[in-house]
Amino acid sequence: MGKKVKKESETPCKETLQLKPLPVEGQTPATVVLLLSCPEEDILVKACEAIHTFAEKGDENKVSLLGLGALEPLCQLITHNNKLIRRNAFMALGIMATNVDFVCKVKISDNKGLPPLIQLLSSPDSNDKKNSLEIIFNLVQDHQSRLALHELGGIPPLLELLKSDFPVIQHLVLKTLQNVTTDTDTCNTFREEQGFEKLMDILSNMDFRDLHAEALQVVANCLSDSKSLQLIHKGGGLTRLMESVLTPNLPEIQSNAVKCIARVAQSSENRKLLHGQNVEKILVELLSVAAISVKTATCQAVSVMSFHLASKDSFRDLAVVQLLNNESLELKEAATQALSNLTHSNQLNAFAVYEAGGDEILVQQLYGTCRRTVANSAVTLGNMAGQEVIHCSIFSHGAKQAQVEPLQSTDTQVLINTTLCLTMLACDTEARAELQSAGGPLVNLLRSYHKEVLHHACLAINVCASDVNAAVEMCQFGALEMLQEIKGAISASWP
Ligand SMILES: *[C@@H]1O[C@H](CO)[C@@H](O)[C@H](O)[C@H]1NC(C)=O
Ligand SMILES: *[C@@H]1O[C@H](CO)[C@@H](O)[C@H](O)[C@H]1NC(C)=O
Ligand SMILES: *[C@@H]1O[C@H](CO)[C@@H](O)[C@H](O)[C@H]1NC(C)=O
Ligand SMILES: *[C@@H]1O[C@H](CO)[C@@H](O)[C@H](O)[C@H]1NC(C)=O
Fold it and tell me: Which residues form a coiled coil (predicted)?
């Protein structure tokens, strides 16, 4: 207070200071922003503080600070020699970076804010590291800033910080990595900078258990290409993942580890490897684990592993059908997906699902609200319909009525899968007569502009039309005219 101002300075702070005994308080935001370029350290401390307080009051204030050009000086002040200035500038910038829309984040990148922030990741001062990490984490919620962080060389110093003695810093690094590794180029750099090895070190250290769930999520993000898969396999990572999967009572770790396994299982080579390590047994065990997230992730892994024929057989007695009684929509979706895969071209599995009462539960799913669950259930029923005893059972549970609604869906996947199911179900005379009531909605599908929907509708109509009554009914709905129109359109496009 009452500080003397250097005469030679022509900066705005000079004027205001001469006029006011209290240099910052009571000033307009515009003036405070100008003060950010003042050489006086005490004033800078206060100006940053005032900006922080003002920005904290709401997004409108942040936007007006943006308009006043507050970001550029703030981005410079975070590297100031004075620790207090640095801290206050960080706080002000930090609050700006949490703007609900992305304007501020983009502007911070535009104002050359990222290079000093990245530089501070290697600062000897742990507070600097933590403060810049916090801002970087907020910035990378925006796609553009994620790319910029990578381009500006932010990944190596970030990985270096995994070794920090401060758990709060390690958490922030992992949370940031979780976001930035959604980008392929960033994953490549992550791999080249020994990111996997560093994460495996964390995963092997039981003192770092609280970091494992986050670390596994990063691993899962980066496991999408074959180079990473080889790397993880060579480094004994697969065994580590299997161990993480079985970590008792820590569902977040387990579900993320299962996600990693599902990623690894994307290639047929790896599926063989996983099969060799008896992954099926582990997955079966996991299905009895209480947490929904683990069961859901496990169903997804089962779906992928089903590409491997030997695995498909070893899942035969899996209690997936029981999961459909659960109220979780996500779990139902994943479970019906797994069932559709397990029963695809596998009559023994289809029979096992039937024996577990699966056909009745699947018919009920056709009334559900989740489109993917409906689509998956329809396809599974179609897969099962080839065996007569199952076929009869499906009908006895009201399959006919249950299909009418999905046939009027606006979702093409639901339409395709249901018509597929209908075609499979309409394979005998009795069934075709039963399915008459589906005639109207089926004929309506001939109006679709979606090629695949049209194709499947034609197939289903073709099968159903061998029943005279069904054929007559479909003609009453105008099927013949529409089919002729389609034929005309096709010949016109093939001169
Ligand atoms: C970033 O990661 C967090 C988890 O740490 C997640 O909740 C958030 O949705 C991610 N944001 C983006 C944009 O990916
Ligand atoms: C659904 O799963 C959760 C977690 O496994 C369990 O607690 C709940 O009882 C299940 N609900 C039903 C109806 O089975
Ligand atoms: C599993 O289902 C998905 C979606 O229906 C499909 O893309 C995939 O090919 C199926 N896999 C197997 C093994 O049937
Ligand atoms: C059935 O629907 C699902 C969407 O849930 C889709 O992924 C799948 O490919 C469809 N199956 C077939 C055989 O078309």
Answer: none
Per residue in 99-127, pLDDT tens?
Answer: 676 667 777 777 678 898 999 999 999 98
In a domain, 260, yes or no: yes
Query: Distances from the Cα of 171 to the Cαs of 158, 252, 450, in angstroms?
Result: 11, 15, 47
What is the spatial distance between Cα 149 and Cα 356, in angstroms, rounded to a whole number?
52
Which CATH number covers residue 228?
1.25.10.10
Domain presence at residue 294: yes
213 closest CA partner among 265, 238, 184, 177: 177
Confidence class for position 238, pLDDT limits 50, 70, 90: confident
Domain assignment present for residue 222? The answer is yes
- The rounded distance, in Å, linking the Cα atoms of 400 and 469 is 16
**Residue 252, pLDDT above cutoff 70:** yes
Distance 93 CA to ligand 3 centre (A): 48
Residue 467 falls inside a structural domain: no
Is the CB of residue 282 below 6 angstroms from any atom belonging to ligand 4?
A: no
Instruction: For residue 414, give the 3-state DSSP assignment.
Output: helix
Cα 51 from chain centre: 36
State pTM to two decimals. 0.81
269 lies in which domain range? 194-301
Domain tally, the chain: 1
Structure tokens at 185: 């180029």
The string of DSSP codes covering 63-132 is HHHHHTT-HHHHHHHTT-SSHHHHHHHHHHHHHHTT-SSSHHHHHHHHTT-HHHHHHHTT-S-HHHHHHH
